[in-house]
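Thread: DUF1206 domain-containing protein, structure

OP (GT): Posting the sequence first so everyone is looking at the same thing. Length is 331 residues per the record. Can we get the C-alpha cells written out before standup tomorrow? I want them in the notebook alongside the other entries.
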Amino acid sequence: MDARVITWFLGPVVLLAVVVNLARWVGAGRLDAFASRARRRATLGSVVGALLAYAVAQGGVDRVDASSSGEGATAHPAVPALAAVAGIVVAALFERWAPRVPWPGSRREASLGIRRGTESVRLTRHYVAGLVLCAVGLVVGWVTSGPDGRSGLRAWEGVVVTTTSSYPGRAYTLGTLGGLALLAAVTWLALGAVDSRPAFVDDPELDRALRLGARVRVLRWSAAGALVTAAGLCLTIGPSLNDVTQRLRGAVEVAGMPAAPVAPGDWTQNVAFALTALGVVALAVALFSLLWDAPAVPRSRRPKQPAASPVSPVSRVSPGSPVSPEGLRSR
C-alpha cells in the first residue's frame, strides 16, 4: 500500500484529533467534581489513544528507497486497522477505570431502559461501510495481481505489463483480513465493556452522556480504521491499474497487436476510476468519523434523599419520665 495515505493523512489527522480534544476540554464549562473527573478521564483517554495510534501507524511505514516527499514508501494494508486497534484498547482500558459512584448510597445497577439512545448508529454505519469497501478492494487486488501476489498485472494478446511499485495483491490478502478481524474483535469486546457497565439509575442524563461518549470513543476508531484501510487499498489499486492500463495500450501499439480495450468499454480501467473516487470519499468520511464529538458531560445530580417523617414531641416522652410545664403547654 502507498504509505502516503498514512503519512499525509492519518498522522496529521491523528495529531489534529489530539489538539481538538484538548481544546474542547480547555474550553468546556465548569462542572462538579465527579462530572469533571469523568470528562478529564475521557479527554486523557482520547489523547493517549491518538498518540499510540500515531506511533503504531508510523512504525508500520517502510521508508526504504523513499523520496523526500514520501513517494516510494510502502506499508502493509493492515497498518491503519492495527493503529485503530491501539486506540480502541486505550479507550477500553480507560473505560475500566471509570469513576466510582459519585455520591454515597447512589444505586449503580443494570438497567436496560437507560441504555436507549446510546447506539451511535451513524458511526456504526461508517464502520460497516469501511469493512465492505475493504472487501471490495481485496477482491479487486486478488483478481488483478500477478503470480507473485505483490504486483498488479494486465495482459492483452500475449503482451503483459506489471506495476512498478508494491501492489496489495493476494500476498497481502490474509494479513489484511487478519488485521480487520482483530479490529472487529477488539471493537466487539470494547463495546461489550461499555454496555456491561452498571448504570447510574439515579441520574439517567449523566449515565447516557457517559455511556454514549464511551461508545463514540470506541466506534470512531473502528470507523476510521476500517475506512482508512479501505482508502489505502482503493488509492493504491486504482491509480496503479490505471497506470498499467496506459502502459499496456502503448506496448500493444508498439508490438503491432490488435488495439487494447479503451474507455468507456475497458471495464478494468472503469473499476480503477471508481476505486480511486471511493478512496477519496473514504478518506473524507474517515476524517469526519475520527473527529466525531462525544456528547457534553452534564453536571451530576445527587439523588433526592427521602424526607424524615415528622415526630411529635409526645412520641418522644417515655412513660414515667418527668414532663416539664413547657412540654405540657406545647401540647
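GT: Both are above now. Quick notes for whoever picks this up: The radius of gyration is 30 Å. The chain is about 60% helix and 5% strand.
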